[in-house]
Here is the input.
Amino acid sequence: MNSRHAEPPTDRRLDAKRWSAPARIVVSLLLAWHVVGLLVWPLSVPQSILGDALRPIYRPYLEAAYLTHGYKFFGPDPGPSHLIRYDVARADGSHAQGVFPDRNEHWPRLLYHRHFMLSEFVNSQPPDADVDPRLPWERRPLSAAEQTYVRSYADHLLAANQGQSVSLELVEHLIPEPADVLRGMKLDDQRLYRVRPLGTFTGKMP
Amino acid sequence: MNLVVNYFRELGRATLDGWNRFWFTPADAATLSLIRILAGAMLLYTHLVWTIGLDSFFGPHAWISPDAAAQSARFSLGPELEQVSQADGRQPASYVWSYFWLIESPAALWTVHIAALVVFAMLMLGLASRVVAVLAYLAAVSYVNRLPGALFGLDQTNCMLAMYLMIGPSGAAYSLDRWIAARRAGKRLAAAAPTVSGNIAIRLIQLHMCVIYFFAGLGKLHGETWWRGDALWGAVANLEYQSLDMTWLAGWPLTIAVLTQVTVYWELFFCALVWPRILRPIVLAFAVPLHLGIAFGMGMITFGLAMLIGCLSFVPPWLVRRVFDGAAAREVENKTEARAGQGRGAQGASEAAPVPRRFGAVAARSARVK
Here is the structure.
């Protein structure tokens, strides 16, 4: 007598019969599709041959499901942070100046972080292909993506401050070396900042 | 030759059995329900904060205009966009969607925002759970797709949890749905029966967490500082992130190196080490200081907590019931122990079963002692 049949049924065995074989096959295929899909964007950031092969197949699903993430948190290296400084000029000659993110203005912390991501987002855009890579960061022209976002920020600032024109600059805040901090350097030492002009904008986007 | 054939036959059978056991063993919904409460609370808080900046981020003059948001999906394509554009001069279609693209008036904006907050609150409380789980996911994705540029890991984790809460019966425990059902029945209800869909939802969260950690670790190996061992300094000495001054670590390079390397290796091997039950508590214990460090040291409290909510998927339902159900859970454990005693021939108690036999016996003994 087969001992497997002699065993008293456990909960698990009874429960396994709740889903029919065809149902399990269909769900298994969907699960396999989804689980493989989870790997596609992480394999594509940065670019890889496998990621390039799978992305066209999976893109509709992953975009629709909001699964287009590389999950490279704090990778490849924790780098300097970026802020955007602005100066809005009004018709009456007054100015509204500020920076985002700004801990004094943006509260709670999550809202501060949202503004922080706006400035980081501009910096994270790759330069256009025809840009000379030897150009220093401060003099690099805005890529098409950067222009789109910076123009959008400019329009927001103009509307929020009833401005006529706005000048923006990207401020990079470098990380000091541990040895410098041990020698007394503060994290907001002016030597740790460098500036890249983003342009002056007037009126609405055409 | 027979040896090889037998090996592959056995491998196929074992894979099939393992696959069925992994995905299709019914699970108690206690863990999923706990995740529903916490993820619902996180979604509610995250979107409540949008209320402060609703006009700035979603209004007619938002930081990211609707046009810039629509173009963002195309920019993110990179080389693929170039290939398609060069091939036939057309831009590839975008599958990114958001109901905010249909909204123009401030009144409509406030209406859908308040409706979304109500949905997230209902999810947290477990009211009409199956319906609001779907609505919560649709709302959460609509917000993030309207706002490329203002997002970070929190939004990815929020949407991931909302997605999988749609799949299982997340309101089967610790919910107003359950409380209302008990009121209607006029008696205390027994725990809801384990379900396959509840197990699938938990398994998907578990696998997704493994994917996140693995690629987070792999991405770090791409960088010099993570390999060298001073990456943590880059996080500590970043003034814009800093919420706790830890720059005294400048004089402790070896400590920074150890913390940096432990982070990388923990992330890389999480996907393997979290599955054996004996290692799981240790692996999960490492997640707590890591994410609380991100939460309180770098000011990303929401992100740190959201990742810990995801890690909860690895906590077995029997443990959740022990913590939250007290006496009722011990009753279930005693019954399970009795059943396990009958079915001693069964191989490998499933993780998804209400109480693993060994733990059930221990729990029952401790209940008797008390």
Q: What stands out?
A: Residues 343-370 of chain B have pLDDT under 50 and may be disordered. The two ends of chain B are 60 Å apart (CA to CA). DSSP finds 18 helices and no strands in chain B. The CA atoms of residues 60 and 104 of chain B lie 7 Å apart.
